[in-house]
Amino acid sequence: MGPVKAGEFVDNLLISSITAISEDPIRYRFNSMLSDSGVLLRERLDPDSEYRVIYDYDGQTVEILAFVSMKQDLERVLYRYLMFR
User: Fold this and answer.
1) Which residues, in sequence order, are CB contacts of 46 under 8 Å at separation 6+?
2) How far apart are CA 13 and CA 54, in angstroms?
3) Among 7, 44, 79, 80, which is disulfide-ready with 28 (CB 3.0 to 4.6 Å)?
4) What's the domain of life for this entry (predicted)?
């Protein structure tokens, strides 16, 4: 995938996520792996793109924190993110 197609893919993923989550932010479940660690973040699974969106909702504001491919191990991706922050 070239840079233009990658940009379009990311734009579409962000727009579809914002649209779906803003309709009803509490519709999507808490991620069970994170919940087991005491971290209450919700996730939206997008079957079309095969990406998950990890987000926080405080009752008023939605904050999208990460997009992670469903083909990747979420725990490993989050660990790598923390290591290189």
Assistant:
1) 13, 16, 17, 20, 52, 53
2) 13
3) 44
4) Bacteria
pLDDT, tens only, 36-52: 999 999 999 999 999 99
Nearest CA to 79 out of 43, 33, 45 is that of 33
Q: Give the domain ranges of the chain.
A: 3-83
82 confidence band (pLDDT: 50, 70, 90): confident
User: 62, 55 in Cβ contact below 8 A?
Assistant: yes
- How confident is residue 58, by pLDDT bands cut at 50, 70 and 90? very high
Closest CA to 66 of 80, 27, 8: 80
Q: How far is CA 6 from CA 19, 42, 44, in A?
A: 20, 25, 21
Q: Phi and psi (nearest 5°) for 42?
A: -90, 160
Q: Which two tokens stand for residue 38?
A: 């005491």
